[in-house]
């Protein structure tokens, strides 16, 4: 445990082990608070250390963070070593959160040609029939990965329901209604934002629906 100059607790190290390709990778994190003098009242940032135990650079502002701040929405920024091969379940482990609190963003296209965004827990699978029913489409299918960037402005592993190039009809799985906090991508690989489900709904224009 670490203390600041005023004698208050400022943070502590946490170690996470993730098994990748038969080997365990070690991730060290230091969780602490910034000083009051330079803190944005809308943002609670956490200092991050890489797997070697070295402090990572100050978190950069992503498009998602800028959108949230423009809407006066409070959030907590989380950063980890960028790795597009990490699954949502592994990212939840790095964050030290249950997978029911960490959500992934899926982009689809209906039979009509309209695109839709679905936000579901990382351990869950989108039910295409339920998705079609929620969106009023005859059928829904996932878009191809190569279509993601030009359509949304985000890459695979860093897609967020907040701040896409164009606002698409967006659906949030109903389990989010029972959560105090929710994590979604901050719009870049290696970044997540934590906020309340209500704030996510306001920021992304979500509609609650049973979609898994």
Question: Can you describe what's shown?
Answer:
19% of the residues lie in helices and 32% in strands. It is built from five helices and twelve strands. The chain has 212 residues and is α/β, with parallel strands linked by helices. It is globular. The protein has two domains: 2-75, no CATH class; 103-209, YbaK/aminoacyl-tRNA synthetase-associated domain (YbaK protein, Alpha-Beta Complex). β4, α1 (63-70) and β5 (75-79) form a beta-alpha-beta unit. The protein has a five-stranded mixed beta sheet with strand order 8-6-7-9-12. Strands 4-5-11-10 form a four-stranded mixed beta sheet. Strands 1-2-3 form a three-stranded antiparallel beta sheet.
The domain tally reads: 2
Strand content: 25-35%
Spans of at least 5 consecutive residues with low confidence? 1-10, 28-39
Fraction of residues in H or I helices = 10-25%
Outline, from the CA principal axes?
globular
Our count of helices gives 5
- End-to-end separation in angstroms reads 41 Å
**CATH level 4 superfamily of the largest domain:** YbaK/aminoacyl-tRNA synthetase-associated domain
